Fold this sequence. Notes:
The complex is a heterodimer of chains A (257) and B (122). Chain A has a single domain (10-245), classed as Rossmann fold (3-Layer(aba) Sandwich), CATH 3.40.50.10320. Chain A contains ten helices and eight strands. Chain A has helices spanning 2-5, 37-51, 81-96, 115-129, 145-159, 177-184, 197-206, 208-221, 226-236, 251-256, and strands spanning 18-19, 27-32, 55-62, 99-105, 133-137, 168-172, 189-192, 238-244. Chain A has an eight-stranded mixed sheet, with helices on both faces. The termini of chain A are close together. With 122 residues, chain B is mainly β. In chain B, 8% of the residues lie in helices and 48% in strands.
Amino acid sequence: MLSEAKGRQPDAAHGRTVPFDAAGESAVLAVFPHPDDESFAAGGTLALCNEAGVRTVYLCGTYGDMGRRMGRPAFTNREALRDVRTVELSSACAVLGCELGFMGLRDKCIEFEDPADVAAQVRRVIDEMRPSTVITYYPGHGVHSDHDALGHATVLAVRALPAGLRPRILAVAVGDPNVLREELGEPHVRADIRGVKDRKLDALRAHRSQTESMFAHMNEDAREDGQTSNFSERLTVREEFYVLDADAPTLVERARG
Amino acid sequence: MRPIDRDSIQAELDDRLGQELYLHLETTTGSYTKLGPEKKNPVIAFVRNARISYARGTVTGTGPYRVGLKLGEGWVYADGLTDYEVNERGELLLAGLDCEGQLTMALQLSQTPFREGQTDVE
Lengths: 257, 122
């Protein structure tokens, strides 16, 4: 049961939130389903790693081909969107100093693939680059079904590794931070991204088709609208993660019973 | 994409009468509706590369527009269409776009399968 399980994971830091230490990483792999997830969820953290000389790779699950944002006003269409977003992602990754690979899955359909197949694709990249940390979405707290499914597959990929070779899993939970704190407790790891916030914002701007509406609203509403300024603060001040135990059943597994 | 004019769309539909076509039909609210103030459920459906052939195809309405394709056994229906494009592959792309440029509806016809699978990057 999703509600009963709560998904609380054993906390490596014994209940304290520890800072993300880029210098302590040997290599970092980000695994998210869509072009722009890397910038929204972990753009600051990836930039911090790059500043510290740590190799980063973004393994992107899909081409974002089913996104509904076409720019504001629309400048692309359903069939051209995947190429637009592929180019945008290349630019964003250049801003973040991040290498890029694609899994080639169909946007919105990851949960309908065999999780073992998806996990095997993630595993191949882990084997190649031996990351000290893998960043992905918190399965069951991704909001988007692709987020949950790829987060789940990433946990499976790490679980299949021998204990000594397992990277740490940092999971991003999506939604209202206060609600998430109630459900999951304090985040285990917090990256202070104020020093790299311009790189994160530039990476987000590189995803023009997806973000120009957001930036327009931010500029229009920032002063009056508390929610918008909270949102922009969340984007530029900190990125927070939960450490997942690869052996613990994910919420996706628990929800299946 | 540019705003639909009915005569052009009707001509495009007439050109494809009786042909074996690939259909992409989609409607979407986006996946993040739960995060909105009304916490609405997402409503999303798509069919991609279904094979169809129609004996009568009509665009109606004064904007947004409707399209109905009468099949041998059944119908294809879409409401809320605002913009269109015939792309370099000759695919007829009809879309509903809201004031934020977000796609809410798509009805697309192609003589060859709509693109799927991996692209070579870099």
